[in-house]
Amino acid sequence: MFDWLIVGAGFAGSVLAERLASLRGDRVMVIDRRPHIGGNAYDHRDAAGVMIHKYGPHIFHTNSRQVFEHLSRFTQWHPYEHRVLAEVRSPVTGQPMRVPVPINLDTVNRLYGLSLSESEVEDWMAARAEKVTEIRSSEDVVVSKVGRELYELFFRGYTRKQWALDPSELDKSVTARVPTRTNRDDRYFTDSFQAMPLQGYTRMFERMLAHPNITVQTGVDYREVRDSIPHRRLIWTGPVDEYFGFRHGKLPYRSLQFEHRTLEQERFLPTGTLNYPAEDVPYTRVSEYKHMTGQSHPFTSITYEYPSAEGDPYYPIPRPENQALYKKYEALADATPDVWFVGRLATYRYYNMDQIVGQALATFQRIDASLPPRAANDAVAARKLAAAGD
Ligand code: FAD
Ligand code: UDP
């Protein structure tokens, strides 16, 4: 009898498995229907020996010391600050140019052939910004800061490709992930901790799950084993609508197709990622892993991301009607005893890795506070068994 069956070996499932086993002494079975652990963060060496991320580039960044220190129990780190360029047409010459994203002082100066200072670019942006009384949509966020021309150049096409929705139909939180700057900081993230697991994510997950109380089975779907793995409680990190048999209808998720390529050259891109906001290019971005991992290798590997309606559910789609549907599933989840819903798909939140780790650690605290210690569980079970035998 396992104390826990955990469905999903990504960040949510693996962080919880380790805490339950290490701090409570619980017996845990972790399953995943994919043939590997790590969830979307899974990485491996490709045929040429270059470390790649199977589900697209995963860059770790957080402002939470607690999250960083927690993961540091299972990995050392390779310092890495992500930088991104976007290929857009200059509004002045019509020629393709590669300029920094998030939009910053250099982006504006290079696109328009200007030499503005920080305070001058603030005025420049303010003169173009549109008045929006209440910022609700992903369009509002951008046009209210930099105006329509830069919005169309950098955000409109990219977002329409990525989400199959116009930015005006998406919650403001989506494009608000990408700030606008008036200084020359060209880092994609400004978090206080930015680093990649030194030997990769998968190695970090292996260490997390290498506890004698944890059993892992990959390539196994919950539906196949739900009745054959005896367990007291369940942690579900898959899509919440799937758990409830899509009772209220399907929650929309956006997918991607990844095209991985190995090139017989040392380097391909000047930065970790190059974005293609134009709508006539079918992919949104291409990323080169050696920037992130620091690996030395005569070849290099890259991944193109093609947004798609079909495929694994990667992105919850933040918009009011989807949130309303999720609330119905959340109510079902709250009313389901002995099942805990954790993670990006189970709580339908567009969360980064660090936020999922934070959510899993907070869930552990709630579980630990609400359940008797394992020794007491055992005593109850022993009494029941004895009573059954009488
Ligand atoms: P997942 O990693 O999705 O794990 C859930 C697991 O449950 C899956 O492995 C799935 O196979 C399994 N599962 C589901 N249903 C079943 C079932 N019925 N039976 C068995 N197993 C099941 N975050 C960042 O911080 N930085 C980034 O740079 C970044 N880049 C990203 C790029 C892309 C393309 C995507 C899609 C996401 C990115 N993220 C990034 C977000 C990051 O992937 C997630 O925050 C994190 O992986 C979520 O972890 P999770 O455990 O909630 O979910
Ligand atoms: N975005 C955009 N143009 C860009 C970069 C981002 O329009 O050059 C928008 C797009 O809607 C994207 C969102 O901002 O989905 C969030 O970008 P982020 O890079 O955080 O996406 P993720 O890495 O989560 O796919």
What does this structure look like?
The chain is built from 13 helices and 17 strands. Among the domains are: 1-37 and 209-252 and 317-390, NAD(P)-binding Rossmann-like Domain (Rossmann fold, 3-Layer(aba) Sandwich); 101-176, no CATH class. The relative contact order is 0.20. It has helices at 11-24, 65-71, 105-112, 118-128, 138-146, 148-163, 201-209, 222-225, 240-243, 289-293, 320-334, 353-370, 374-389, and strands spanning 2-7, 28-32, 43-45, 51-53, 61-62, 77-79, 84-89, 96-101, 193-197, 214-218, 231-236, 253-263, 273-275, 285-288, 300-308, 315-316, 339-341. Helix 1 (11-24) runs parallel beside helix 12 (353-370) and helix 5 (138-146) packs antiparallel against helix 6 (148-163). The strands form four sheets. It has a seven-stranded mixed β-sheet. A five-stranded parallel β-sheet has the order 10-2-1-11-17, covered by helices on one side. The protein has a three-stranded antiparallel β-sheet with strand order 5-9-6. It is α/β, with parallel strands linked by helices and 390 residues long. Bound molecules: flavin-adenine dinucleotide and uridine-5'-diphosphate (UDP).
Protein traits:
390 residues, alpha/beta, Rossmann fold, 5-stranded parallel sheet, binds uridine-5'-diphosphate
Which blocks of ≥5 consecutive residues have pLDDT under 50? none
Classified by CATH, the class of one domain is Alpha Beta
Per the principal axes of the C-alpha atoms, what is the gross shape? Answer: globular
Number of strands: 17
Q: Kindly identify the CATH topology of one domain.
A: Rossmann fold
Give the cofactors and ligands. flavin-adenine dinucleotide, uridine-5'-diphosphate
Biggest beta-sheet profile? 7 strands, mixed
Portion of residues in beta strands equals 15-25%
Radius of gyration: 23 Å
The ordered string of helix (H) and strand (E) elements is: EHEEEEHEEEHHHHEHEHEHEEEHEEHEHH
Order of the strands making up the biggest sheet:
8-7-13-14-15-12-16
C-alpha end-to-end distance? 21 Å
Structural class: alpha/beta
CATH architect. name of one domain: 3-Layer(aba) Sandwich
Query: With helices defined by DSSP (H or I, 4 residues minimum), what is the helix count?
Result: 13
Q: What is the overall pLDDT average?
A: 96
